[in-house]
């Protein structure tokens, strides 16, 4: 008995091709050969995310890609944090992922934290923002780790 393909959905062979490209595509970091991007949260405990800060400018990644990790460093104060990842032009960003990270007196989660976005179109601009349970305008530095297809 033959089963027809559901319109609009990728066939298994197409999915396997994408997986093959993904597993064997380049794994890259941005900014590359440069300091991380500093993010500053709005004042107030768990304040809404401030205006996102550009991390990957438009037209930088020239192949389709997805983000797998965000490297977080130089967390300014102890506490619990949230990080939002956006795509799109400044002023019209769309939230595509969120992740959490922490710093306390004996352990900091600085380093690469996992987060997996959907596949993004080449030349997509990526920006990020943070919030925390602290009242102060805390900061953290970030780099995006991504795979190309």
Fraction in beta strands: 35-45%
Instruction: Characterize the biggest β-sheet.
Output: 5 strands, antiparallel
User: Which regions are unreliable across 5 or more consecutive residues at pLDDT < 50?
Assistant: 1-7
Structural category: mainly beta
The total count of helices amounts to 1
Number of strands: 9
CATH topology: Jelly Rolls
Radius of gyration: 18 Å
CATH architecture descriptor name: Sandwich
Order of helices and strands: HEEEEEEEEE
How many domains? The number is 1
Mean pLDDT, all residues: 89
Give the CA-CA distance, first to last residue.
35 Å
- Overall shape: globular
CATH level 1 name = Mainly Beta
Percent of residues in helices:
under 10%
Task: Give me some keywords for this one.
single chain, 149 residues, mainly beta, Jelly Rolls, five-stranded antiparallel β-sheet, four-stranded antiparallel β-sheet, globular, disordered N terminus
How would you describe this structure to a colleague?
This protein has one domain: Jelly Rolls, CATH 2.60.120. 22% of the residues are buried. It has one helix at residues 12-24; strands spanning 27-30, 37-40, 53-56, 65-73, 79-87, 94-103, 111-114, 126-132, 139-148. It is mainly β and 149 residues long. Strands 1, 2, 4, 7 and 9 form a five-stranded antiparallel sheet that branches. The protein is built from one helix and nine strands. The chain is globular, with a radius of gyration of 18 Å.
């Amino acid at each position: 008995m033959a089963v027809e393909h559901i319109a609009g959905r990728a066939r298994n062979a197409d999915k396997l091709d994408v997986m093959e490209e993904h597993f064997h595509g380049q794994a890259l970091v941005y900014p590359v050969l440069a300091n991380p991007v500093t993010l500053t949260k709005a004042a107030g405990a768990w304040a809404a995310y401030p205006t996102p800060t550009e991390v990957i400018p438009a037209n930088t990644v020239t192949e389709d890609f997805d983000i797998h990790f965000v490297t977080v460093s130089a967390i300014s104060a102890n506490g619990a944090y949230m990080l939002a990842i956006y795509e799109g032009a400044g002023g019209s960003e769309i939230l595509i992922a969120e992740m959490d990270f922490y710093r306390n007196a004996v352990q900091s989660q600085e380093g690469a934290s996992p987060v997996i976005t959907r596949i993004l179109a080449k030349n997509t601009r990526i920006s990020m923002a943070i919030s925390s349970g602290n009242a102060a305008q805390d900061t953290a530095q970030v780099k995006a780790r991504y795979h190309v297809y």
